[in-house]
Amino acid sequence: MSKIKSLIRKTATPANTNNPILDNIANSDAPINMTANTPIEQTRWNGWGNININKKVSAHGAKLIKSHIGKTKKLNSVSLAQVLKTVPKSRLPTAITELKTVSIDQEDRLRHARGQSFPDWIAMHGGDFEVFPDGVAFPESTADVEILLKLASEHDLIVIPFGGGTSVAGHINPQKGSRPILTVAMSKMAQLIDLDNESQIATFGAGTQGPAVEAQLDTHGYRLGHYPQSWELSTLGGWIAARSSGQQSLGYGRIEQMFAGGTLVTPQGTLNIADFPASAAGPDLREMMMGTEGRAGIFTEVKMRVQHQPEEELFKVAFMPNWEVGKEVLRQAVQKNIRLSMLRLSNAVETDAHLHLGTTPSQFLAISTYLKARGLSSDKVMLTYGVSGDKAQNKLALTEFNKLLKQQGSVTGKITDIMGSVWAHGRFKFPYLRGTLWEKGIMVDTFETATNWNHIDEQMQQMQEAVQNALADEGEEVMAFTHISHVYKQGASLYTTYFFRAAQDHASTLSRWQKIKHAASSSLANGTATISHQHGVGRDHAPYLAAEKGKLGIQVTSDMLKSLDPEQRMNPGVLIED
Amino acid sequence: MSKIKSLIRKTATPANTNNPILDNIANSDAPINMTANTPIEQTRWNGWGNININKKVSAHGAKLIKSHIGKTKKLNSVSLAQVLKTVPKSRLPTAITELKTVSIDQEDRLRHARGQSFPDWIAMHGGDFEVFPDGVAFPESTADVEILLKLASEHDLIVIPFGGGTSVAGHINPQKGSRPILTVAMSKMAQLIDLDNESQIATFGAGTQGPAVEAQLDTHGYRLGHYPQSWELSTLGGWIAARSSGQQSLGYGRIEQMFAGGTLVTPQGTLNIADFPASAAGPDLREMMMGTEGRAGIFTEVKMRVQHQPEEELFKVAFMPNWEVGKEVLRQAVQKNIRLSMLRLSNAVETDAHLHLGTTPSQFLAISTYLKARGLSSDKVMLTYGVSGDKAQNKLALTEFNKLLKQQGSVTGKITDIMGSVWAHGRFKFPYLRGTLWEKGIMVDTFETATNWNHIDEQMQQMQEAVQNALADEGEEVMAFTHISHVYKQGASLYTTYFFRAAQDHASTLSRWQKIKHAASSSLANGTATISHQHGVGRDHAPYLAAEKGKLGIQVTSDMLKSLDPEQRMNPGVLIED
């Protein structure tokens, strides 16, 4: 017991932990900027996030991964100066370049050429960007964007909207072609424009990043409540255009429930989407335009449904005997309308990996001993949950949920409560882990879907097996684990993380990734699971979209987009293949 | 006090009350059929509902209305036999008429020619149907519908989908034109086809009416929870095609939250909309097709999100000092996430009218005395609310809500609790009132919208004034009152009921209605209120749709529909004017 007490003492102070799940702000070099948009020059040009923030990984965590994928070797990385030399002359006409909103600066063009997909990382580290936008516009108003799209039509440009540049599916990558490419970066439209306290509607510039959204609302006592893992850098416009979902979607809803209306500038003119509370007047323009991923136009000002800051917010952890009972707890909780704000369940492999990655060997032993003494075996799974709201509502939700947990043999206690708090403190640092592992030659990517409860197990197995066996022809093992992070009465999301080792060069490492990606994507193309629950389609998922929409579904979506962009200059090839 | 006690005794037995709001099943000639679809031959050919059900109105209620609109005189009504003589020969080709699913019987065609809009009632009672469908198909499967649409393309027919025939906006009326018209009645597709207990998804034939939906689910312990006022006769397919909202939408959501996916047969083929719990894979096909009002195709099988029957369900009434504080209670309740399943607030005029219409003079005096003794004046408003769920969840919700009520000076007690129960028992009998009033020469119609909280008062005033003054040129007074029946964090619906007196004949009575309708619709066309919160667009609201969607919004919607119906044979003119 002394080990456990010591562990509790240590983890009680977030600054003393070192755990990718049980992470915290204090153990990084700098805190996340919580008040305003992060200037792009303060972000890594070839990886995730703020240049002042890093994230460590434990030695025995890395060892566990290597015990699966084998000994690794770091890939080479080119320098920014080397890549800058490869940026060609801009093809934009002077009518565009003379606009005060437009830059043809080489670094601006480089920094807006790629997102955060695995192929993007390979391109950035290998120095092979292939294509750069011919210029980057930084509009400050809807009128600026209207001018840009008008000139784009007159001069036959390709236009790519750019929010936080956090796409992991190839949403913002310029493609080879004869038409000059203008990327429209929304970073200067980042203000709270209007707040209707009575209707609780906040109007924002669409380029506002997560922290700036919440900081501006918080001064008025409000919260949006949308917290995707990319929250530090991703934007309102990006969330809407790619149908994002945040970690507390159970309590606050997906972006679809938050987006009330707004302004979409299209090549055919400006579409003002009215912000009614509800309407029976035909198909919903909001829902027709959400998920268009830049192919219909550019969101400039967006009206968001906000709420009062919760009186109380708690995050907790429980360990369950196995996946089956953990899943049953999630399903019953949501179907019984228990008012939690988040639910997340790691499968047994993920639970073990996270306990390794986030602990010292002695901490790991202490936790393992603690859980084993309470009857949990290697089948154990970690369940993270939260409440956000009035204290009385939270109390009832926790009472109801604890009853469910106990019925299914949960282990909870002071130590698991601390794990919950620590998870909450560090939850936006996760994406930094990719860079840390990259430096060790460990390649990591994720894959996600959503399916109904009756398909969850089958789909998880199919996804994991597809990923694990994808490099069998090279004799390479891929390590994979999965969690459920978003639950609905009808089903849940599945989020698989996988690790493989870098090959001898960038191209053959990319080839490994492509095999895995294709195997995983194909495992979804069965009509019962979506190609994306929260990342969108982009270019990477577009080949698999027809499997779920059908030929006719693709046709009607495509015709809808062509109505607003008949010359297909808006982000062509994204969402629907040309 | 003896009067009050006597009233409580009387109202405690639903059979003894006679009140349009505080109504009950017992005081009608027959109960609503609660188990299966009502055969169309058991419904009125020229009015609302089951031929065996009637609804009385109190003498002093009718007197109150007449004190506003003046002395009334009943309009003539033609007989069914007279109208049957006006049904012309069918123009359908033999390739259609020889199908076993198709009828060209004159009464079938007559009974599927009109809905329940005010112009429909004028046409049915005046005997001027104008146009009849050339035949009515009664498909029994998706394959039947596919054959029908294939033949419709080959023979260039107009096709009109028909659910319960309850449209109040002209959704199912055939129009003059050279193409023969086939109405497709979905009444034979009324079965529960599949139930996934784990994912709580029920698959139904789209022609299933409200009672048959709930009866088939109830045998398995489930509930859909969609209760529009038309519930007795309206269908799943109709609710989805016209974006319906039920009385308990606060707890169960609108039809948009219930419809998970399904099959839409279109002239371009069959669109299978996948039933994912959520997806980020592009624009949502569900939301693109909901609200298409028959212009994209015909819903045949629909997958609905269902829930366990609630452990407890209660409906209650409270009286509030005035509209302002009543509205404040509604807004705070929803914005504080108090888990009620319904909220409804009648304004002062509606409160007074309903208390008159549903009572004897002595009951009215007793209630008025009771409320006056508790400090309520003629400004008082009636607030109806409900909870549906687990007892613990309901208890918390009622505790929180009662606190809000008391803060705002509510009057509640045994008598108001009874009013709530009685409202619940009689809530689907309301549409029968139109026939009762019609027989007295009192014309009644309703008008509804939704807007944000900050526009509610202004919009209600505009709507009511527009209606009240619409017949000023004829020296006629229109009586109007309003309630809020659906609340959202962002805003609420407004539902105005109005009474005017019949003119000397059907045509001039219709002309009065047209003036009122245009005045009311124009009062909405300001971009802040929708032309319909729950009735859909049909033909009657189509001229006003552009005011809220904008020219570009209409264009993109129209192009989306044309993608599935390039020859515009599906219900042309509905939703978007030709």
From TrEMBL, chains A, B:
Domain FAD-binding PCMH-type: residue ranges: 124-309
Keywords: FAD, Flavoprotein
One family name in Pfam for this protein: FAD-oxidase_C
Transmembrane stretches, start-end: none
Tagged with keyword Flavoprotein: yes
Family per record: Belongs to the FAD-binding oxidoreductase/transferase type 4 family.
Protein name: FAD-binding oxidoreductase
Species of the source: Psychrobacter glacincola
